């Protein structure tokens, strides 16, 4: 027996014994199944020899009252099945005829709708051609009387149709003119478009002399004297400038508020380590 590194000799031996027993049981099972099949085949042969078929029905070789009753019942069941089959076939044929008739009716309706649609499209094309012809005649200065004089005499229906087309053309023209007028008024109400200033990229832009020589606010403040600064401060106090820039100053009287120019700020707190110095 070959040794396995991870298994002991006893475990290998027990597994080998179990496998041999398993093979014996498998062979025994196959033998039992084969014997059962053979017994069943023998029983079937005996039944056939005795005059019965595989389903347990008596064969036709034995004549008797029971056989005749079974035969009549089988005939009745066969007739019932035949009638049911014929009825199903009749219903199927009727359903097929009805389906075919419905399909033909639907195809006929589709053809009629297509004819109506084609006639309507042809009528619209004819009306459009007549409108174009009328517009061209009006542009060329040809009057309706002259056109009627060269044309063949028409009936009242043609005259009514022509008048209707002329009215529709006039309505469409008036609507088009109204849209053009509304568009023109809307364009007039719009502000003028800003013009793009085309400048040379190579040109050197120089500052304007007036902006160059104008003093800034910081330079103006540096040129003031102390007396002028105090005078401006007193004037701001008289004008309540600080109240205006510091809203709610009266609601916090315990807080000292100072203003340097127009920027209101609160004085910084003194650190604890510097209070006793």
UniProtKB/TrEMBL annotation:
Signal peptide: none annotated. Residues 66-127, 224-241 have a biased composition (Basic and acidic residues). Residues 58-157, 182-201, 215-248 are annotated as: Disordered. It comes from the Eukaryota. Residues 146-157 have a biased composition (Polar residues). This is Expansin-YoaJ. It comes from Phytophthora nicotianae.
């Amino acid at each position: 027996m070959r040794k396995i590194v991870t298994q002991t000799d006893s475990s290998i031996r027990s597994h080998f014994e179990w496998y041999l027993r398993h093979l014996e049981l498998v062979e025994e099972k196959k033998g039992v199944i084969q014997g059962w099949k053979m017994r069943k085949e023998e029983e079937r042969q005996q039944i056939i020899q005795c005059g019965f078929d595989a389903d347990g029905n008596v064969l036709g070789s034995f004549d008797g009252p029971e056989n005749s009753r079974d035969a009549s019942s089988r005939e009745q069941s066969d007739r019932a099945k035949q009638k049911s089959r014929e009825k199903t076939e009749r219903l199927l044929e009727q359903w097929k005829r009805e389906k075919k008739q419905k399909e033909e009716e639907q195809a006929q309706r589709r053809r009629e709708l297509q004819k109506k649609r084609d006639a309507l499209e042809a009528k619209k094309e004819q009306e459009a051609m007549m409108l174009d012809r009328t517009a061209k005649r009006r542009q060329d200065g040809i009057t309706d009387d002259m056109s009627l004089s060269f044309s063949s005499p028409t009936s009242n229906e043609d005259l009514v149709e022509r008048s209707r087309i002329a009215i529709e053309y006039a309505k469409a023209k008036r609507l088009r003119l109204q849209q053009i007028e509304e568009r023109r008024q809307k364009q007039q109400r719009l502000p003028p478009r800003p013009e793009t200033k085309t400048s040379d990229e190579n040109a050197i832009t120089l500052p304007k002399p007036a902006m160059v020589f104008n003093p800034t606010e910081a330079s103006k403040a540096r040129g003031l004297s102390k007396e002028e600064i105090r005078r401006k401060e007193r004037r701001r106090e008289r004008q309540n400038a600080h109240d205006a820039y510091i809203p709610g100053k009266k609601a916090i009287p315990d807080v000292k508020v100072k203003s340097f120019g127009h920027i209101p700020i609160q004085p910084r707190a003194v650190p604890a380590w510097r209070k006793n110095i």
